[in-house]
Amino acid sequence: MMTSNNVPIVAIATAPGRGGIGVVRVSAPDLSVFIRQFFNRELQVRHAHYLPFPDSGGQAIDEGIALFFKAPHSYTGEDVLELQGHGGPAVLKRIMQRCLEVGRDIGINLRHAEPGEFTQRAFLNNRLDLAQAEAVADLIDASSEAAARSAMASLSGSFSNLVNALADRVVHLRMLVEATLDFPEEEIEFLEKYQAREELQSIQDDLQHLIRQAKQGMILREGMHVVLAGQPNVGKSSLLNALAGDEVAIVTPIAGTTRDKVSQQIHIQGVPIHIVDTAGLRETEDTVESIGIARTWAEIEKANVIVHLQDARSPNDELDIEITRRLPARTPVLKVFNKMDLLDEAALKRMQEQVEQTSEENGHEALAILVSAKQETGLDTLRHKLLEIAGWNPSAESPWLARERHLHALNSANEHLQMAQEHASHDDRVLDLFAEELRLAHDELCKITGQFSSDDLLGEIFSSFCIGK
Ligand code: GDP
Ligand code: ZN
Predict the structure, then answer these.
(1) What is the b/e burial string over 167-188, where b = at least 16 CB atoms within 10 angstroms of the residue's CB?
(2) Predicted pLDDT at 124
(3) Any idea which positions bind GTP (predicted)?
(4) 418: left (phi over 0), alpha (psi -120 to 50) or beta
(5) Is the CB of 405 under 6 A from ligand 1?
(6) Is ligand 1 within 6 A of the CB of residue 150?
(7) Which is nearest to 415 in space by CA: 430, 437, 439?
(8) pLDDT value at 3 more than 60
(9) For residue 336, how far is its CA from the centre of ligand 1 (angstroms)?
(10) 250 vs 297, more confident
């Protein structure tokens, strides 16, 4: 993926398929010759020109708007030309072919852009830092308004600014320490004189606040994977339909009909939740069905949360006890007793008492609730429990989107600051070790904005973009 940084590139920037408008984008260090060859005239910078896009024989391929952004004031930081034509696949392809042809004619090595290559250039030319570049992809991929809002906040730099501010404070403290290192007799006074420990503590407090927000931002970005598991006919498909609000799975009264997995993404308070419906778990001779059951176990292994659906009329069913025993101990399980509408008053009371006792089972906490998929009761409780298990704090703000990578760096920085704190409070305080931990903490923070980034990391981040971005 890592490709030469200043080879001219071109791509259709709008989504494939038909649309009112489609955009072809070209980026290169210098496009003035290209533009003259393409239009047989100059284009004024940042000016909307309405004109024909001619083919090699001078016939119009399309008519549209041409916009020319001169380096460095463009998305990529290079010269950028945007051609807005009609949004049909054939016409856009012809416009792009014409661009490649013009590139050949004038001897520049214009080629198709790789996914994310425009944004990668923006990063390499310091138009965006790495966290902002990631936010571009996250904004495009956002599946809820809350996620889009938070991605936009990251893109405009609110996350990067907080990280940079903390990094600056760490550097400042480190400079003070290093200035003292040459005068060993002053080491002890240094810590007191500059209130170094207090400042370090205050940096740590702010970092921990950032970590809490990053966790929220990560949940909002990544969401969670929930698997619906249980015996045939307990109402898994009905529950998925009720949660999704439309018919995605086939509901039938014949046991064992959901043989393949059906998955659906829903949102709870903007958090994306991927729910997988599975084939019912039971002893079976049917080979087709047993394949479905094997897949169910595979889904269970991958899930962040398992919803173990059971019939409220038989809460201590032997097969359910067996299923519980086989669930992976590391994954949280929510026991959901369905069909509560079929319980008589006494049974309902008994079940309500049973679900209230959250019990230690199988090595992890088993949460239990009562619902009716058919009458859509108990679903709000179910939604809240799912968010709770995800670690979502409904009252905390989630000001920006975060990735696993960011959280990892924040946590490592925090560990180094903790080590620094320990060196500072030790009897024979070792200032050079203190300074070294500050340096390591600073490096971790800088990884987030990409001041230190390997080609591998960049390749991984930008290759997940769509083409044309
Ligand atoms: P699955 O095999 O676990 O996916 O179960 P289905 O969703 O296909 O449901 C099996 C049967 O149970 C269907 O006839 C549903 O209408 C019925 N059912 C599902 N949930 C409820 C419920 O909460 N109450 C009642 N009374 N019936 C339900
Ligand atoms: Zn089903």
Answers:
(1) bebbbebbebbeebeeeeeebe
(2) 93
(3) 233-238, 252-258, 277-280
(4) alpha
(5) no
(6) no
(7) 437
(8) no
(9) 13
(10) 297
- Which 8-state DSSP code applies to residue 266? E
Q: Which atom of ligand 1 is nearest to the CA of 257?
A: 2
Average pLDDT on 327-331 reads 91
Residues 6+ apart with CB under 8 A from 278: 227, 228, 229, 236, 258, 261, 292, 295, 296, 299, 300
d(CA 102, CA 226) in angstroms, rounded, equals 51
State percent of the chain over pLDDT 90.
62
All domains of the chain in start order, with CATH? 9-128 (3.30.1360.120), 139-218+403-450 (1.20.120.430), 223-390 (3.40.50.300)
DSSP, res 343: -
Average pLDDT over all residues of the chain: 88
The ligand that comes nearest to the alpha carbon of residue 236 is: 1
CB distance 237 to ligand 1 below 6 Å: yes
ipTM: 0.98
Side chain identity at residue 211, one-letter code = I
Position in ligand 1 atom list of the atom nearest CA 251: 8
Binding-site residue numbers for K(+) are 233, 252, 254, 257
Q: Could you identify the residue written with the tokens 């790789």?
A: 114
3-state helix, strand, coil in the chain (%, to 5): 50, 20, 35
Segment 152-156 long-range contacts (CB within 8 Å, at least 24 positions apart): 153/399, 153/400, 153/401, 154/217, 154/400, 154/401, 154/402, 155/128, 156/132
Cα–Cα distance for residue pair 466/54, rounded to 1 Å:
28
CA 325 to mean position of chain CA atoms: 33
Phi/psi class of residue 298: alpha, beta or left (left: φ > 0; alpha: ψ in -120 to 50)? alpha
Q: Is the CB of 259 under 6 A from ligand 1?
A: no
Q: DSSP states of 240-260 as a string? A: HHHHHTS--S---SSTT---S
CA 346 to ligand 2 centroid distance, Å: 29
Which tens digits make up the pLDDT trace of 347-370? 999 998 888 875 545 444 558 899
DSSP-based three-state secondary structure for 267: strand
**Cα torsion 60, 61, 65, 67: sign:** negative
> Rounded to whole angstroms, how far apart are CA atoms 3 and 199?
43
Q: Are 37 and 30 in contact (CB under 8 A)?
A: no
Contact yes or no for 414/207 (Cβ under 8 A)? yes
Q: Is 262 in the pocket of ligand 1 (CB under 6 A)?
A: no
